[in-house]
Recover the amino acids of this structure.
């Protein structure tokens, strides 16, 4: 069995003709089922964030994982393995490629007749410098908009930590979001 998740999104906002947010990402994870609840995966993440001076961050990871639950109404999966990240910053210009470890916990849980709790926590500690830890946590509630539960309203929260941000930038970033999500079952 092969399962693929593709997440593409962004955030662009202006106030009085001044850009106040400009972040875009594309994230894919493909799981390949092994015996029992074990799996192996391949993952890639591509990011741009104007206000952290990030022109590009590309991360590739692969490894194994385990499905504690993988049902329609509840999911708990862990993934872990090696990875590599390339980052290109501006102001000041910085290009760095670093070997990473990768860890992820993915949860999806039905908490009411029509509401699903969803959370994904991803950890990227640098192998050569543990101070370069990156954490991304997305949490949200999905509310179905149709009977097949393909279209959902997602109200959520995003937290990102970068242990080595570009010069004059904060290591933590918090955001709330409201999204329309399409799920192909």
């Amino acid at each position: 069995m092969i399962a693929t998740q593709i997440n593409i999104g962004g955030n662009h906002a202006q106030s009085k003709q001044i850009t106040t947010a400009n972040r875009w990402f594309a994230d894919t994870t493909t799981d390949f089922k092994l015996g029992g609840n074990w799996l192996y995966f391949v993952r890639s993440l591509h990011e741009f964030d104007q206000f952290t001076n990030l022109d590009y961050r590309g991360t590739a990871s692969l490894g194994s994982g385990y499905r504690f639950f993988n049902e329609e109404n509840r999911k708990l999966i862990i993934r872990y393995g090696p990875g590599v990240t390339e980052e290109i910053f501006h102001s000041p210009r910085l290009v760095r490629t670093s070997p990473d470890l990768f860890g992820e916990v993915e949860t999806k849980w039905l908490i009411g007749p029509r509401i699903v709790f969803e959370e994904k926590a991803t950890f990227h500690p640098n192998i050569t410098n543990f101070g370069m830890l990156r954490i991304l946590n997305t949490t949200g509630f999905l509310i179905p908009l149709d009977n097949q539960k393909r279209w959902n309203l997602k109200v959520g929260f995003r937290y990102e930590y970068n242990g080595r941000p570009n010069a004059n930038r904060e290591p933590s970033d918090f955001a709330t979001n409201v999204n329309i999500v399409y799920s192909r079952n």
